[in-house]
Write a structure and sequence with these properties.
5% strand, two-stranded antiparallel ribbon, 379 residues, 4 strands, mainly alpha
Amino acid sequence: STGITRSNMLRAFPCTKLARLFRYKGRPPFKRSFLSRGMSSEVAMSAVPAQEEVTDWRTNLTGDDTWLLGERSPAWFTGPARPAMAGSMPFQDLTKVTRAELHEYFDNSWSLTETLFSGLQSEEAFMRPPYHDLRHPLIFYYGHPACFYVNKLRLAGLLDEGVDPYFESIFEVGVDEMRWDDLSKNHMSWPSVAQVHAYRAKVYEVVSGVIQNAEGFETLAVQLQDSPWWSVPMALEHERIHIETSSVLMRELPLEFVREPREWPALSTNQARWEKPTEGEHFRANPLIPMDRARVVLGKGTDEISYGWDNEFGSKTMDVPEFQASKMQISNGEFYEFVVAGGYRDPTLWSEDGWSWCCFRNVRKPTFWVEDGPKGLNQ
């Protein structure tokens, strides 16, 4: 089947995010990320309480979530005002960007996160661990990007003090680089949604002030990675990574916990009931494009004008054999063909680790596909 052939390009690897310890050439590592100035490390760290474990994640529920039901009020948006339509700005030329343009990109990133999370319905949607237990609940991802801004700006020397030492401890590190069967306990005590919402509002004002007023902005255009200001686009692109991470976790929630934000662009199709997808009617033809054998050079140069993560820099030459690639991204309609043709039952189409995950979870379709009838109907 056409679906199976194209599925050779699809693999079920858990998404991972490469973290980077921010350093600058010629200066020692900054070791006081959570320390108040003038305090010893022992005293400062002991002042931050450890995150407590709970026997049941439901103990995090406060019962005060009427403000999290239905469409969000304007007060939900802690930074820029609610956008008329959600959309992402393109990468910036860091050799030419102005403070105002950098702030606009910050506003856009912040607004995308808040628009995405406005789709969560009820407190439980934030606190319920994912079904696979491989990631934190979404309350972590609501607070983590804001925490990252604070911690990285402190490491870079653009910010002297944190906003909330406890929050900047529990929201600092996620649970990346885990195998599909490395299940976490995921029973931790988390602040309420209202508390994290208030924290985000404070962080927005702090980061906004740094972008508008902190010294040394001109060094970014000249020094790029060697400038302390490199930490700002780092935090911005990190937030955008988590827009994808969070959206995947939201797709795994039961439908009663999600609602389409009104700021999202309209879907090309919006069927009330299931209808068998047909090429040309529900999705476009997606031919495979032949690619000739070639020698390619991978990697970014240190003088690139856009932000890059540490693993993107350097140079590596590869001899790539001829192959075929689909013209467009795989659509739901095409992937439906793969599912119906038995793609989830054929180990030859999976990596060894991916097939082990498939068997462990007894997966037969994407998690966020909701069945409309008996399993054998494939609808």
